[in-house]
Amino acid sequence: MKLYGHATSPYVRKVRIALREKSIRFEWIQESPHDAGNRIADLNPLGKVPVLETDDGQVLFDSALLIEYIDGLTPERLIPAAGPERLRVLLWNTLGTGIVDAVVARLLEDRRPAAERSGAFIARQEEKVARALAWADRTEKGTAYLVGERFTLADLGLGLALEYIDFRYPHDWRSRHPRLARWLAGISTRGSFAETVPPGMEKALDAPH
Predict the structure, then answer these.
(1) What CATH number does domain 2-71 carry, 3.50.50.60, 3.40.640.10, 3.40.30.10, 3.40.50.720?
(2) Residue 78: what pLDDT?
(3) Contact of 85 with 65, CB cutoff 8 Å
(4) What is the Cα–Cα distance from 86 to 20, expressed in whole angstroms?
(5) Architecture of the structural domain at 83-191
(6) DSSP state for residue 190 in the 8-state scheme
(7) Rounded to the nearest 5°, which phi and psi values hold at 53?
(8) Quick check: 209 pLDDT over 70?
């Protein structure tokens, strides 16, 4: 199994965490759609990462689809098969995905030339993040894990998103949401998280909070 993608992509990291949580061996081919001579567009017509090439030669793309595929490879599931728990896990993961999307959008806009940059657009993305954090803080959840008594896609999705905030949109969200900060501190110690920290994120995670 081969995973294509670059280290700083949160969508690629999400798949890497899932693979490690499931103890699935894979070859990671570090490649960006922006690299000269890259093969991403040949594998994925959308020209995006992550891309997964299965052992039987099938090519899959989009992190949500990849997580779904990976989760079916072992009996222990990140996504419950059915019932209220499944819906809750998917809801938390959707929140995490939305946070990541907003932070990515903010980052890309902030990198535009000053004359072309939209402060209003950046502010809207920051408002989305703030509302999402407030929702996560007040919504009923477990102490160690968001849903039930074990690690699920809910924890993966939100934990990844909160660390990505620290990486690409650093600000003091912890003082407003200390319970959320304590929960993340526990999740961040998992091997799957610690082993997939992108270059440059170490400084953000080690900074005083």
Answers:
(1) 3.40.30.10
(2) 98
(3) no
(4) 21
(5) Up-down Bundle (1.20)
(6) S
(7) -105, 115
(8) no
Q: What is the pLDDT of residue 37?
A: 83
The CA distance from 111 to 70, in Å, is: 34
Q: How far apart are CA 25 and CA 1, in angstroms?
A: 7
What pLDDT, in 10s, does the model give residues 45-96?
Answer: 999 999 999 999 999 999 999 999 999 999 999 999 999 999 999 999 999 9
| Amino acid letter, residue 50 | P
Q: Give the β-pairing of 2-5 and 59-61.
A: unpaired
Residues 6+ apart with CB under 8 A from 130: 173
Determine the pLDDT at residue 207. 53
| Six token digits for residue 10 | 């949160």
